[in-house]
Design a protein that fits this description.
This is Transposase DNA-binding. 29% of the residues lie in helices and 25% in strands. The chain has helices at 7-10, 13-18, 26-40, 47-50, 54-64, 71-89, 173-183, 203-211, 232-237; strands at 93-104, 125-134, 140-149, 191-196, 215-218, 243-249, 260-273, 286-297.
Length: 298
């Protein structure tokens, strides 16, 4: 389907990103592109505040109510554009940075589809897990994966049984699922590195990545037992220094800390970690490379 847009709209990023939106109505695609242009020019504003007039705001609200325009349709078009950006960049390495956001919409009492997101029982919102394609020098190229959900209230209080449940029944399965979705359709000459914070320090995540021949970088929180009969942190700290890097730490207003530079000493080691005792026998020991950074000065 070919679209005819105003010259300024046809040159906008939103047109190139969503011109192949997977619906058969050109008018709806045009409205979607124009809505993205309007909203992107006024980040943080409400739809009414971002729109030029009431007619435009009403058109955007009608677009949201369009049953054909699902989040799957929008993500598919955007992800296709993201893969194209990766090809055009020609980077040998792309980071797939995963993270989870909690959106608090408790004050939106009339909004449908909200639910428990981990705050108080009377709070309502959404949970969003995303995988963002980023170049090694920090240029964001677009989403590789994203899904939105809420928690069932009856799931509260079941944290004590999480060790007995398989990973597929846990919310943390999102890390494995997003890894698989992110690598789908990736150019074969691109090395994809899956990046996660401490929440991604999951044995099944490591094992799944190794089984799928995927690279990953995770901030470690668990001091796991190794096959050398010692704990992970102690073993890596015994290694000789591999060098130093200077890192700029942004200002932290919550702790009243100004922007500063710190020097990190790096040590790394290749270790084999033991399978957790509660893990089913199908899991194998994972051989991983760990890197340790120690703050030396500020």
């Amino acid at each position: 389907m070919s679209l005819t847009m105003k010259h300024e709209d046809a040159n906008h990023w939103a047109y190139n990103e969503f011109k192949h939106l997977g619906i058969s109505c050109g008018r709806t695609i045009k409205r979607f592109v124009r809505s993205m242009i309007t909203l992107s020019r006024n980040i943080g504003e409400s739809i009414a505040g971002a729109s030029d007039n009431k007619a435009e705001a009403k058109a955007i609200y009608r677009l949201i109510d369009n049953e054909k325009l699902t989040e799957e349709v929008v993500l598919h078009a955007h992800r296709k554009a993201t893969i194209q950006h990766i090809k055009e960049r020609g980077e040998p390495v792309i980071l797939a940075v995963q993270d989870t956001s909690m959106l608090n919409y408790t004050s939106h009492e009339k909004t449908k589809g909200l639910g428990d997101f981990g705050a108080g029982v009377h709070h309502k919102g959404l949970i969003v897990h995303s995988a963002l394609a980023v170049t090694p020098d920090g240029i964001a190229l677009g989403l590789l994966d994203q899904f939105v959900w809420t928690r069932a209230l009856e799931e509260r209080g079941k944290r004590a049984t999480k060790r007995q449940r398989p990973i597929e029944e846990k919310e943390s399965f999102k890390w494995l699922k997003s890894m698989d979705n992110s690598r789908t359709g990736m150019p074969t000459d691109v090395r994809l590195v899956h990046v996660g914070d401490r929440e991604a320090d999951i044995f099944e995540f490591f094992d799944h990545a190794l089984a799928c021949e995927q690279d990953f970088l995770v901030r470690v929180v668990q001091n796991r037992m190794t096959t050398e009969a010692c704990k992970l942190f102690g073993q890596v700290k015994q290694e000789l220094s591999a060098g130093h890097i200077v890192v700029e730490v942004p200002r932290d207003t919550r702790r009243n800390l100004s922007k500063r530079e710190v020097t990190l000493e790096l040590r790394h080691s290749r270790v084999e970690i033991e399978t957790p005792v509660n893990m089913p026998k199908k899991w194998i020991k994972s051989v991983l490379s760990y890197q340790y950074g120690r703050h030396q000065s500020g």
